[in-house]
TrEMBL record:
<protein>
    <submittedName>
        <fullName>5'-nucleotidase domain containing 3</fullName>
    </submittedName>
</protein>
<keyword id="KW-0479">Metal-binding</keyword>
<feature type="binding site">
    <location>
        <position position="319"/>
    </location>
    <ligand>
        <name>Mg(2+)</name>
    </ligand>
</feature>
<dbReference type="InterPro" id="IPR016695">
    <property type="entry name" value="Pur_nucleotidase"/>
</dbReference>
<keyword id="KW-0460">Magnesium</keyword>
<feature type="active site" description="Nucleophile">
    <location>
        <position position="45"/>
    </location>
</feature>
<dbReference type="InterPro" id="IPR036412">
    <property type="entry name" value="HAD-like_sf"/>
</dbReference>
<feature type="binding site">
    <location>
        <position position="45"/>
    </location>
    <ligand>
        <name>Mg(2+)</name>
    </ligand>
</feature>
<comment type="similarity">
    <text>Belongs to the 5'(3')-deoxyribonucleotidase family.</text>
</comment>
<dbReference type="Pfam" id="PF05761">
    <property type="entry name" value="5_nucleotid"/>
</dbReference>
<dbReference type="GO" id="GO:0008253">
    <property type="term" value="F:5'-nucleotidase activity"/>
</dbReference>
<dbReference type="InterPro" id="IPR023214">
    <property type="entry name" value="HAD_sf"/>
</dbReference>
<dbReference type="InterPro" id="IPR008380">
    <property type="entry name" value="HAD-SF_hydro_IG_5-nucl"/>
</dbReference>
<feature type="active site" description="Proton donor">
    <location>
        <position position="47"/>
    </location>
</feature>
<feature type="binding site">
    <location>
        <position position="47"/>
    </location>
    <ligand>
        <name>GMP</name>
    </ligand>
</feature>
<keyword id="KW-0378">Hydrolase</keyword>
<dbReference type="GO" id="GO:0046872">
    <property type="term" value="F:metal ion binding"/>
</dbReference>
Amino acid sequence: LVSYLFYFSFSSDLIPVISNNFVNPDTIFANNEMSLQDIEIYGFDYDYTLAFYSSNLHTLIFNIARDILIQEHRYPEGLKEYEYIPDFVVRGLHYDVQKALLMKIDAFHYIQLGTVYRGLHPVSDKEVIAMYEGCHVPLEIMSDFYGKSSHGHTMKQFMDIFSLPEMTLLSCVNDYFMKHNIDYEPVHLYKDVKVRSDHKTNKYICYGEQTHAVLRKLSENGKKMFLITNSPLDFVDRGMNYIVGKDWRDLFDVVIVQADKPSFFNDRRKPFRRVTDKGVLLWDRIHHLEKGQIYKQGNLYEFLRLTGWRGSKVLYFGDHIYSDLADLTLKHGWRTGAIIPELRKEIKIMNTEEYVHTMTWLQSLTSLLEHMQVHRDPASQAVIQQWIREREDMRSQAKDIFNSQFGSLFRTYHNPTYFSRRLSRFADIYMASISCLLNYDLKHTFYPRRTPLQHESPSWPEQTSTGAMNIPFQSQQAGSE
């Protein structure tokens, strides 16, 4: 009890200190040490990297995809009663194609209980454990390298920001079929629900000076720049005219549209074709990638041969960790920057007093349990069981602060999500938007924080100050001596 009161007092005193230690949402975070002084060439994806869209676009995509199911695939007209739910899902979730279940999985392939949904309703922990014989998802049924469900895999991971309306539509259709007792084949439903991001229109672009300012800053400092996007020329041209201005092409040394990423990074067979301003494909062979010209398709190997831009002097930004970044860092040694728009919202939540209070007390409770579990007498065990229940409640509260269904994009309770693990592996740096570059000069070095390994943490002062205090253990030692 004395220890409990100490920890409670300690945690309460700590909250004001932590509350003053806010995280700036415009920070660039480093997974790997990288100096901008070494970067000579900057590359960009287009969607959700240079161009950002309003949430109304997801409503449009959802409605179009829902109507395609009804009109082209003869799904029930009753689906029209469903509308897009903006905050239902988060990116990075897994979908079990055969069981029609949407869930969050952590970096160790464990399902986070309480985040498994059939349709629009949660599945009980007991049922989940029965279906999967526990909480672990074996490697052989996980998605392939790019998050797709293929080659007999039953899981699909949704990594694209445009997949938010797709996940929501899958959930709504599943919900309708269950509500009306309609027998259906989940695999057919998964294949039918293909949300196409080419429905996006420029009227949903969120205009800002920041993209223009970043590109101008790089250009004025003599940096070479290129654009590789899967979007078509007419769409990119209208968007960049709106965001940057009619002279946007002057900023880029190479512009490639309809690149067909991630195949662009792996398939050596597709040659470049030049595109006229009217979208006409020219037949002549490409010997040089010229500034001011637009090229379609091609492949990275030909791109490297024609430009000579190789290795760690190239930094490429994209929002899709698999399609944009994985191959570049694993196969070609480029430096990579992930654009995670959700980051800004999550950091703002982390800066709230509610979140700080919840996490501080949760950490203290966990430390209490770790140290006091050695007491096996009935009275102590009763208190410990009470703490365990309180800890479970606190964990659920922490999840709900971000999203009541699936929690944070980055955490499954204390573990990193499957999304987080891939982010740390494939991105040297990550940020909410490229505008964050304006806060740094082009000689800045990004240093990753040396977070302790588990066996190192006792020797780190900042770790001992947040709950790793061995008071019960030390008192036991003193007693035994």
